Amino acid sequence: MKAKLLLRLSAGLSLFFAIGHTIGHYTRKDTTDPIKKSILRQMDEQAFDYGGSLRSLGDNYEGISLFLIVILVLLTILLWQISGNIEEHKSLCISLLIPIMGCFWVFAVLSAFYFFIVPAVTCLLAGILIGWTCFRAFNQQNITDPSIS
């Protein structure tokens, strides 16, 4: 597979995660379970001082969830943009992709421990595809670039 395709598949996985998380974010309070409703209500009603602002745990979760949606959408865009430049600018693209790959691997571990299997597998696959892209691009660069020897 070409590097461009691998990165676009990674971007697709990132977008899949972003869409799934967005759906989960906006439907998380849609429950008929009285225990869940009670906990969600308590999370929204009880406010505490957070760095000088009065916020509830519900506000905290809401904000963090929105942060993740934005990050995932921006990672999707970044991966798509890098995919269009990987052939011409291998070194730069690899240096950008390595921290993105690390981000997806950390997301995979955290998702496995604190959430559920779908985001864990999605992030793991995205990280593997990015790693495979970096490995292939680095090896091709070393083979074709006479200044590296």
SSE order, one letter for each helix or strand: HHEEHHH
Strand order of the biggest β-sheet: 1-2
Structural class: mainly alpha
Q: What Rg is obtained from the alpha carbons, in whole angstroms?
A: 20 Å
Q: What is the molecular shape?
A: elongated
Please give the share of residues in helix: over 70%
DSSP strand count: 2
* Main sheet summary: 2 strands, antiparallel
Tally of discrete structural domains: 1
Distance between the termini: 26 Å
Global mean pLDDT: 92
Number of helical stretches of at least 4 residues: 5
Q: Pick out the low-confidence regions.
A: none
Task: Determine the strand fraction and express it as a percent band.
Answer: 5-15%
Keywords: Membrane, Transmembrane, Transmembrane helix
Can you put this structure into words, describing what you see?
The protein has 149 residues and is mainly α. It has one domain (3-140). Helices cover 79% and strands 5% of the residues. It has helices at residues 3-27, 34-45, 57-83, 90-114, 117-144, and strands spanning 47-50, 53-56. Strands 1-2 form a two-stranded antiparallel sheet. α1 (3-27) packs antiparallel against α5 and α4 packs antiparallel against α5 (117-144). Keywords: Membrane, Transmembrane, Transmembrane helix.
